[in-house]
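User: These chains co-purify. Model them together.
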Amino acid sequence: MISQNQNKLIRSLHQKKFREQHSLFIIEGVRSIKEAINTNAQFEIGISTESFSEKNSDLIRAINPEIVSEEDIKRLSPSVTPSGVLAVYKIPQFNKPNLDQNFIYLDHVADPGNMGTILRTATWFGINQIILSEGCTDPFNPKVVRSAMGAHFHLSWIGHLDLNTLNNHLIIGADSRGSTIDTFNSFSEKWCLVMGSEAHGISGNIISVLDKTVAIPMHGIGESLNIGVAMGVFLHHLTKQPVVSQCQ
Amino acid sequence: MISQNQNKLIRSLHQKKFREQHSLFIIEGVRSIKEAINTNAQFEIGISTESFSEKNSDLIRAINPEIVSEEDIKRLSPSVTPSGVLAVYKIPQFNKPNLDQNFIYLDHVADPGNMGTILRTATWFGINQIILSEGCTDPFNPKVVRSAMGAHFHLSWIGHLDLNTLNNHLIIGADSRGSTIDTFNSFSEKWCLVMGSEAHGISGNIISVLDKTVAIPMHGIGESLNIGVAMGVFLHHLTKQPVVSQCQ
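Assistant: Joint model of the two components:
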């Protein structure tokens, strides 16, 4: 059984101010919790339903959760349809950003599902430093965590940073009026990829800092790609090894 | 004011069997409804709140919706957070698939948000024919429609089709054990890209039909990319113009 205090703590973590106060966040779902376990993240509380625990003995052995009723997990989970397991972990403490590595800059990305997909995609392509503008959703929001599928534990740094600090980086903005990403070939330079919000694009004050704008060639119809999809296409190109010319 | 019958009809369209019975579906949000208007889709019913209509005079002129209360739209909308405008449109009638064009095959894609992102991404890259296996979510489900952002009106065909019908297509499976997509260069052939579900990959009975499997090179860490992101990367490559060698 979980205590009244644990109960109250878990519920409070639905809100940003309590996540910050306690430096804790909620993770749900098998895949995300497995990533937390694999990276030795600091575990605090685990709860699961009986029916979940019967089907997932490996995970249950690893986090040894309190068994609660279906009703209880519905009350404690921030999801409309809880997965049957919920864990509370310490928010990772990040050191300073590493200015010798690449960055992604998110400009007013407010949708939690998109933010989660972005983190999952970034870490998959090996980009582990994320700069957030004011107005971005909290990356430890439970909806972000759910769609990030454990990416939080692979980030080396996430937070606010003035783009002007990045003196030696090529600042690349994703913008439909930019030149096609297919011709980008400055693979030896460090870069920071700036993604604007789906609704408003890149903010005016950021546009003046950009060294270059890039776009994905459209072959069909539509106003735009989803921001996570677009970022995936850009990162696939930017993380490619340069093609060595086969000409003699 | 909307009638009792319209009220009942809109509510019924939250369910697949009534969407099929009436051949109608619900669209919400400014961007999706604008796509419906631009493509001359067959409009049936529109409702909006007063506060929405005051801020969106263009859209209001185009569909002339009934004004309803915030409470009414909450009751009628399938969304937890309705956008303030909801329209009912005829489900487009599709002719036969065109066997001279490319296809996407979705194998047990059950998540509505992913299906919507897939449709939006496919039509953006000019792939307008989508084959659905059994077990896929209904593409006219309101959650699919919301994340597809009007892509439904750019599809030329969507439905069930036996992959063996595609004699002249290269059947390409997205599979993490496949060869890197970067080396794919059969740009003169017609193809069908098969995307499996995030949880289970491509089904056993489909694997035997594949001509080739392709993967996206991973440079970081993570179990997989989101299916919509992965498809975006594949389609960006597959719809590229082949590079003409610059060697003499």
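The interface with chain B takes residues 31, 35, 80, 113, 117, 120-128, 147, 149-151, 154, 182, 216-226, 228-233, 236, 239-240, 245-248 of chain A (CB under 8 Å).
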